[in-house]
Amino acid sequence: MSKGKKRSKFHIIIKKMEPVRDRYMFTDNRHPEKGIMSAALGVISVATLVCGVFFSYKNGGQALMQYAAGAFLAAIFSVTGLVLGIMAGFEKDIFRLFPNLGIILNSVAVIFVLFLILLGFGVV
User: Fold this and answer.
1) Do residues 31 and 94 make contact, with C-beta atoms less than 8 angstroms apart?
2) Nearest-CA neighbor of 38 among 92, 94, 106?
3) 60-86: pLDDT as tens digits
4) What pTM value is reported for the model?
5) What pLDDT was estimated at residue 25?
6) How many CB atoms within 10 Å of residue 29?
7) How does pLDDT run across 41-63, given as a tens digit for each residue?
8) Closest Cα to residue 75, out of 116, 19, 120, 22?
9) DSSP assignment of the chain
10) Are 41 and 106 a contacting pair, CB within 8 Å?
């Protein structure tokens, strides 16, 4: 310090605001295995149904027996995935991403299968 300038006892320290991403949040939440399985079954069933409809379209509107078997398996997968997603949704201390994703995908697949069945009977 120079002779002419005295430093005050009271000086202000300005602290820069820390970004939010640098803070840690510790939690006991986890991704439930049933929810992950539900989301995986939902993706498989929706993909199977979309592929079955696409290949039937490419075949001139005639669905082969393999496409019907795939749709049947997709219906079983989607009902199983829907049940698993609902069961995972009732667990405590979990992240809700995979159970909700599984419920949505499997519900879409079940509704699509019901629509295809009604379309086959000529109701729609």
Assistant:
1) yes
2) 106
3) 988 899 999 999 999 999 999 999 999
4) 0.77
5) 73
6) 11
7) 999 999 999 999 999 999 998 88
8) 116
9) --SS-PPPS----PPPPPPGGGS------B--HHHHHHHHHHHHHHHHHHHHHHHHHHTTTPPPHHHHHHHHHHHHHHHHHHHHHHHHHT-SSB-SHHHHHHHHHHHHHHHHHHHHHHHHHT--
10) yes
